[in-house]
Amino acid sequence: MEQVNRDRLEQLLKQFSAFGATPGNGVSRLALSQADIDARHQFHSHCEAIGLTMKVDDMGNMYAILPGKKDVPPIVMGSHLDSVLKGGRFDGTLGVLAGLEVVHTLVERKIELNHPVMVVNFTNEEGARFDPAMMSSGVLSGKFNKEEMLRSRDSEGVTFEEALKQSGFEGAECDRLTDAAAYLELHIEQGPVLDTYGEDIAVVEGVMGMVCYEITLNGESNHAGTTPISMRKDAMFASANVMMHLQRELKKMPENLVYTIGRMHVTPNIHTVIPNEVRFTLEARHADCAVIREVEKIIARLPSEVEQCVMSYRKLWDRDTVEFDTTVVNAVSDSAVALGYKTRRMYSGAGHDAQFIATYIPSAMIFVPSTKGYSHREDEYTAYEACAKGADVLLQTLVQLDKKLSNAYESEFVK
Ligand SMILES: [Zn+2]
């Protein structure tokens, strides 16, 4: 069974980790920064060197294309080259470079596929410089409005539009990814499951739905030294009670529900003053929307008064679970098994470009282990052999889908 060139993939990953390298062995490669622009040029020159043609669309998404034997929509592989501030060397980059290595393997071994093959680098996946995350795949899928995205500003006041124009990577709307036979995204897991269980590959079935609420406790401020405890309306202790209650209730839910109180605002936030207002977020994620609805019921059942403070809540936003395409998911699974790699199925708890692309192109993702589950930090690591196994699955899935989908076209033609 065909495998990718391990050394070449390792060299590629090492080469790209120099773009925006940080002293802590990570990368700071914010979207359309000089480091990102340098990485883009490097990607472009590698693509040209193996005979691919490059197209760039109006959001700066880059598409490297290898023609197929037939005039049919391409099979697309890719991810993103941008990173968060002090991020890791593998997040996103692996999916783009593994795609490149897979195509290099095809070209080198003269393996001709029916479908054209495309490697994509999506602009500003992280949203670390320009809000929101997954900006460009969001525009492609119609989830985000392009004009609004162009106005998004970084912390220095530079708009996305200005940065895109200055980068030299502003292409044409007619070159957008509109139609494809399939989209495959190889990515690091960014969680500890594969590493903990010593498994090679996760076949990703979809992206978990989530919900985010803000809960507010209103009490009364007063002097921290003179007000007897029995006469207080302390919003902080009241909110602590609510948090403990939430944890007790949520622990009764299915084990794979994840929930986080990640943000808290305390007013006035002074150590000599009893807090009169505490606001905090509760975010929960699960693949089954019925479980998410149960979380919402727990919140709805909260009392309106806690320790003489008024409790209120509002939903900030939610997102439905994205189910990946069964044919593509099964092709990933069959490929990983055929290669003899230890495999499990899972839903992604993190967001990825694939979740937007999946709304109009049959998609799936492949995860490889993140050592200790670390990601979005400088010591994010995935062993190079583990990366290569992911690329092998990518290659095998591509070849399998090419066969399977070509047969489908032919039988349609016969009809
Ligand atoms: Zn990523």
Q: Unreliable runs, pLDDT <50, ≥5 residues?
A: none
Total domain modules: 2
Could you report the average pLDDT, rounded to the nearest whole number? Answer: 97
What's the order of the H and E elements? HHEEEHEHHHEHEEHEEEHEEEHEHEH
| Backbone shape | elongated
For the record, the CATH class of the largest domain is Alpha Beta
Class computed from helices, strands and strand pairing: alpha+beta
CATH architecture of the largest domain: 3-Layer(aba) Sandwich
- Which fold name fills CATH's third level, the topology of the largest domain? Aminopeptidase
Tally of alpha and pi helices:
12
* Approximate strand percentage: 15-25%
Which ligands accompany this protein? zinc ion
Major sheet characteristics: 9 strands, mixed
Distance between the termini: 34 Å
Organism: Sporosarcina saromensis
Protein name: Zn-dependent hydrolase
Family: Belongs to the peptidase M20 family.
GO molecular function, one term: hydrolase activity
Supply the key terms.
415 residues, alpha+beta, Aminopeptidase, Alpha-Beta Plaits, 9-stranded mixed sheet, 6-stranded antiparallel sheet, 12 helices, elongated, binds zinc ion
Q: What's the arrangement of secondary structure elements?
A:
Elements: H1 6-16, H2 34-49, E1 53-56, E2 62-66, E3 75-79, H3 93-108, E4 117-121, H4 135-140, H5 146-150, H6 160-167, E5 182-188, H7 193-197, E6 201-207, E7 209-218, H8 235-251, E8 258-260, E9 264-267, E10 277-286, H9 289-300, E11 305-306, E12 309-319, E13 322-323, H10 326-338, E14 343-348, H11 353-357, E15 363-368, H12 384-414
Helix pairs in contact: 1-3, 3-12, 10-12
The structure holds zinc ion (ZN).
Residues 80, 91-92, 125, 187 line the site of zinc ion.
